[in-house]
């Protein structure tokens, strides 16, 4: 991409905003916007899960564990019910699971796509004459779109699977796994967990990004010599 921009810069700037109204430019704007939403809905999430604990010297004390992107839940600790830890029966209690690789894959892809869309729009708007005169630029753009659509597919399904596991690791099913809640005289009950609807939306945006990039391949294909050569093939009698 840097080579493309450098070559375009040598040819001179010719600003043409109307390119954004054409399918190729308009889809790129949508890809840019949807990448922002995918990044924000996943990377900006913060939540907590809460339990109600009764133990030695403590009655119905709410303990919480706050978690956020990149969802390394195994480093998140529940606050102790009291300074003395229920008379010594309460030990460090962590959530289970490290889902950082899936979340970071999804968010990093969104960030890279965001930057690529900006660079592509600069070329479309300012150097469209160079873009159209060379078959290498549309062909490179098409290859990148195919690869990006595939990466959106993979990252979205990986992140969706991780999200299911995150929900399981922050809900009532965690109580039987907490050793401190099994101590004599200690009872734990689930209170609440922050709604993860915004994370569900991030998965939707991942799928929309995949469809956008996959559909954009057709518009890019029409700008390459491959499409023109196919149209020139004479029809058989």
TrEMBL record:
Keywords assigned by UniProt, alphabetized: Glycoprotein, Membrane, Transmembrane, Transmembrane helix
Q: Where are the bilayer-spanning segments? A: 105-127, 139-160, 198-221
Source domain of life is Eukaryota
- Pfam families recorded for this chain? MARVEL
Subcellular localization(s) per the UniProt record: Membrane
Can you list the GO cellular component terms from the UniProt entry? synaptic vesicle membrane
Q: Start and end of every MARVEL domain?
A: 19-225
Regarding the membrane, this protein is recorded as: Multi-pass membrane protein
First-listed, main subcellular location of the protein, grouped into a coarse class: membrane
* UniProt xrefs under InterPro entries: Marvel, Synaptophysin/porin
Q: Which family does it belong to?
A: Belongs to the synaptophysin/synaptobrevin family.
Record's protein name: SYPL1 protein
């Amino acid at each position: 991409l840097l080579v493309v921009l450098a070559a375009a810069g040598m040819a001179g700037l010719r600003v043409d905003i109307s390119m954004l109204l054409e399918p190729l430019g308009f889809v790129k704007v949508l890809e840019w916007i949807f990448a922002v939403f995918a990044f924000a809905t996943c990377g900006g999430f913060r939540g907590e899960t809460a339990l109600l604990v009764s133990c030695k010297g403590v009655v119905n004390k709410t303990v919480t564990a706050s978690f956020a992107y990149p969802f390394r839940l195994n480093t998140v600790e529940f606050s102790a019910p009291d300074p003395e830890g229920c008379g010594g029966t309460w030990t460090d209690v962590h959530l289970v699971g490290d889902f950082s690789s899936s979340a970071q894959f999804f968010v990093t892809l969104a960030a890279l796509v965001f930057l690529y869309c900006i660079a592509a729009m600069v070329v479309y708007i300012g150097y469209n004459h160079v873009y159209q005169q060379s078959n290498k630029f549309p062909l490179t753009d098409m290859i990148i779109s195919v690869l990006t659509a595939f990466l959106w597919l993979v990252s979205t399904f990986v992140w969706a699977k991780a999200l299911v596991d995150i929900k399981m690791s922050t809900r009532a099913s965690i109580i039987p796994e907490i050793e401190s809640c099994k101590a004599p005289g200690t009872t734990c009950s689930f209170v609440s967990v922050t709604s993860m609807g915004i994370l569900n939306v991030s998965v939707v945006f991942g799928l929309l990004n995949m469809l956008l990039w996959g559909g954009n391949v057709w518009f890019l294909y029409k700008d390459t010599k491959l499409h023109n050569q196919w149209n020139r093939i004479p029809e058989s009698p």
